[in-house]
Design a protein that fits this description.
alpha/beta; Aldehyde Dehydrogenase, Chain A, domain 2; Aldehyde Dehydrogenase, Chain A, domain 1; homodimer; 2 domains; 16 strands
Chain lengths: 409, 409
C-alpha cells in the first residue's frame, strides 16, 4: 500500500500537467470514463458486493453504499453532463489599462490539487473526479473505508482513461490508507492540497476545524426555512412546503422550519397539515392552537436539521420577525420566501444572509444539477471563496496577468 | 477594558447594518474620516509619541510605527481613493433562466465581519477599515500592542464618523486585549469572523495555520523572480531588474532571484552588476564567472526572501528551466519575464502558477494601488478565494438568488 506522503508527491506532480491539458483532452477523459463505467459495471458491482458484505449497519448508510446498474448509469450520465459544460479555464475578467499603459487582467486558472473527504457514497468518487479533471485540477479523494473496494474499482477506470489521453493516472488518487490517523495527516498536507472540501456531518466539520491546516470550504448543515408571507398565494405555498419537506427529507436542501405570517396562518396551517399527514409538526402556541396534532416545539427543534418527516413551525407577526428567526437559527444554506409582494421579495433577497435566497420556489432546487452547474463538489455554507453548490467555477482561481512594455515604478 | 467576547458580540451585531447601508452612506463615512484625520492629526501624533516612547527597537520596526503629518495626510488620501472606487455590492453575475423557468443568478454581497491581524504600522488600521466599510463589511482589527495608542486614536475617529451616519461605532473595532492568549482566541471566533487575514511574517502565518478555526486568506512571503529571456531587450531588462530589486527592497513584491538565459547572460550580467553596485549578487558558477564580486549562492539563497539589497542569480538554459526553478522556490507571489518573444511570454503567462504573472514590467506593480484597486487589505499567496492584492471585491462573496413562480421539484 502506498503511503499518504507517496501518494501526495505523485498527485502534486500530476497537477501542472492537468492544468495545461487542452479543454478537449479534459473533456474526452470524462466521456471515456463514462463509457468505461458502463463497460465495467459488473466489476464495479462485484467490488461493491464485497463492501456491502463487510458492512454491518442496515440503515440509511447501507442504501448510500449500495450500487446498482441504474446508479452506475447515473454516474456515467453525470460525467457526460459535466463534460458538456463549457471550459471554465482561461476566462479573462476585470481587464483594464492603467494610466501608465500597463495592461492588467485576471485569468481563470485551476486551483491545483483538490482534496475531498466524504462518506460512503461511491458515486461521489466519480462525480468529484469529473468536476476536478474538467476544471483542470487533480482530485485527491479520501472516501469512507467501508466503500474502499467500490472506490478502488471506480478510480482504476479513471487512471486508465487519464493515461490513454497522455495524463498521469495519479491525477485522480484515492487515499489508500483509510485509518483515522491518515485522515488527520491528509487535512494537514499544506504542501499538496490547494483546497480541501469536507462532505459529511457535524463530526467531520468539527474535525476539519480542529485539524485542517490547509484552506478549506465547509459543506455544512442545511437548517433551511420557508417563510409564507402575508401576501403569499396559499395554494403555491402549500405545494412548495410539501415539496421542500417531503420530496427527499434526508437531504440538506430540504425544509426544516416553516415560518408563517399570522395573517395567513389560520387559512394556511390546517390546509398544509391535511396535505402532508405523514409529517409531524412541532409548533409554537399559535401553531398548536390552529393544527390538531401539532406538538409543542422546543428551542432545540428550531435549531435542528431533522433530515426526517418532521417540520418545526412558528407563526410570526412580520417579515422582519421571520428574518430575525432565520438569522438566529439558520445555517446559511437555503432560505425561501413565498409572497406575491415584490417589496417583501426584494427585502428577503437583500437582507437574508445565506448561500441561496429563494423566492416562490422550493428550497430543493439549491443543487448543482438543478442550477445548471452539471453537478457539484459540495454545497458551501461559508462565505469565503464560494457559497452554495460548487460547480466547475468554484474549483478555479483568478491569477493576475500584467503586461507592459518596460514599465518601472 | 471590554473583553474580546464582548467586542465580538458588538461587531457581529453591527455587520448586518453595514451590509444594508446604501453605497452613498458607506462612501460618506470614508470621506468623513479623511476629514477627521486631517483635523485631528495633532491628537493622533500625540498618541503615536506615547507608543514611540515605549518602543525599544531602533530598527525598521520603529520607522513603520512612526506617524508624521505627511503619513496622516497619506492615510486621508488613501481613504478618498477607496471612496472613489465603484460600489462592489449588488453586482449580478452568471444570470441564467433554467428550462423550468427558474431565474437564477449570483449577487455580490459583503462577507460580514473581516478580522485582520497585523503588525505595527498604524496606517494599516485606517486603510483596512476603509476597505471593509466601503465593501459593506465590519472590520475587527487586531493591531500590534506597540501601536495600540495610535490605533485607538484612529479608530475613535471611525466610531464617531460611523455614528454620524447612523451606523454603529462597533463596525470598526480594535481588539482591546492585545495579549498573546487573546490573539489565539481571536483566530477561533467561529461565530463572529467570516474571514481572517493575517498580515505579517512567517511566525504569524505559522500561528494562523496552527490556531485559526475560521476561514482565512494567507498574506504570505514574496520570493519573487525576474526571468530575463533569450529574446529580452537587455536595456529594458536592466531597468526592470534594478527597479524590482532596489526601489524598495524591504517589501514583498521586490525581486529576490534573477534568472537569466545563458545566451544573454554574458551581455547582461556584467552590465546589470555595474548598474546597481549597491546590490550583493549571489550566483551560480556561470554567474560568478561573468561577474566580478559575485559570491557563490547556496540552496538557501534561492529559497529566501532577502528583503534587502541582495539578489540571488542563476543562469538557465531555457524558459522551461526557469519555470521549473520558479515552481520549486517561488512562493506564489509575483513572477516576471522580460522577453520580446510573444510565444515565450504566453508560455510564462499560462504555465507559471503564481498570484501574478508579469510580462515586461517590474514586479513592484503587484500592489493594490498600482493595479487600480484603490488599496489592498493584503496580498493573498493562496489560491482559495482571492489571489494577489485584495481590494474591495476580494472582501465580497456571491450569494445565489433564485426566483420562481411556484416551481417545485
Amino acid at each position: 500500500m502506498p503511503t499518504l506522503r507517496e501518494q501526495a508527491a505523485a498527485i502534486k506532480a500530476s497537477a501542472p500537467l492537468v492544468a495545461v491539458a487542452p479543454s478537449a483532452v479534459r473533456e474526452a477523459v470524462l466521456r471515456d470514463v463514462a463509457t468505461a463505467l458502463r463497460a465495467n459495471a459488473a466489476t464495479i458491482l462485484q467490488a461493491n458486493e464485497l463492501d456491502l458484505a463487510a458492512y454491518v449497519d442496515q440503515g440509511a448508510g447501507r442504501d448510500r453504499l449500495t450500487l446498482t446498474s441504474a446508479r452506475i448509469e447515473g454516474m456515467a450520465q453525470a460525467l457526460e453532463e459535466i463534460a458538456d459544460q463549457p471550459d471554465p479555464l482561461g476566462e479573462i475578467v476585470d481587464a483594464d489599462v492603467r494610466p501608465n499603459g500597463l495592461s492588467v487582467a485576471k485569468m481563470r486558472t485551476p486551483l491545483g490539487v483538490i482534496g475531498v473527504v466524504y462518506e460512503n457514497r461511491p458515486n461521489v468518487t466519480s462525480d468529484v473526479a469529473g468536476l476536478c479533471i474538467r476544471s483542470g485540477n487533480a482530485a485527491f479523494l479520501r472516501g469512507s473505508s467501508s466503500a474502499q473496494r467500490s472506490n478502488e474499482a471506480i478510480v482504476a477506470l479513471w487512471g486508465e482513461a487519464l493515461e490513454r489521453h497522455g495524463l498521469p493516472a495519479a491525477a485522480v488518487t484515492l487515499v489508500a490508507d483509510t485509518s483515522h490517523e491518515a485522515v488527520v495527516t491528509f487535512m494537514q498536507l499544506t504542501d499538496t492540497l490547494d483546497c480541501l472540501i469536507p462532505r459529511g456531518g457535524p463530526s467531520l466539520i468539527a474535525a476539519m476545524r480542529e485539524h485542517a491546516r490547509v484552506p478549506y470550504v465547509l459543506d455544512g448543515d442545511g437548517n433551511c426555512h420557508v417563510y409564507v408571507d402575508a401576501a403569499a398565494d396559499v395554494a403555491m405555498a402549500e405545494a412548495i412546503v410539501v415539496n421542500a419537506k417531503t420530496s427527499r427529507p434526508g437531504v440538506c436542501n430540504a425544509a426544516e422550519t416553516l415560518l408563517v405570517h399570522a395573517s395567513v396562518a389560520p387559512a394556511f396551517l390546517p390546509r398544509l397539515a391535511a396535505a402532508m399527514p405523514q409529517v409531524a409538526l412541532r409548533g409554537d402556541e399559535a401553531t398548536c392552537a390552529l393544527v390538531t396534532g401539532a406538538t409543542a416545539a422546543s428551542e432545540a427543534d428550531y435549531a435542528q436539521e431533522f433530515l426526517d418527516l418532521i417540520l418545526a413551525v412558528k407563526v410570526v407577526e412580520s417579515i422582519d420577525e421571520a428574518m430575525a428567526h432565520v438569522a438566529r437559527y439558520g445555517t446559511g444554506h437555503s432560505e425561501a420566501i413565498i409572497t406575491a409582494d415584490p417589496e417583501a421579495a426584494e427585502r428577503w433577497v437583500q437582507r437574508v444572509d445565506a448561500a441561496a435566497v429563494v423566492v416562490n420556489a422550493s428550497t430543493r432546487f439549491i443543487d448543482g444539477g438543478e442550477l445548471g452547474l452539471g453537478g457539484e463538489v459540495g454545497i458551501s455554507t461559508q462565505k469565503l471563496h464560494a457559497r452554495g453548490p460548487m460547480g466547475l467555477k468554484a474549483l478555479t482561481s483568478l491569477k493576475w496577468v500584467v503586461r507592459g512594455e518596460g514599465q518601472i515604478r
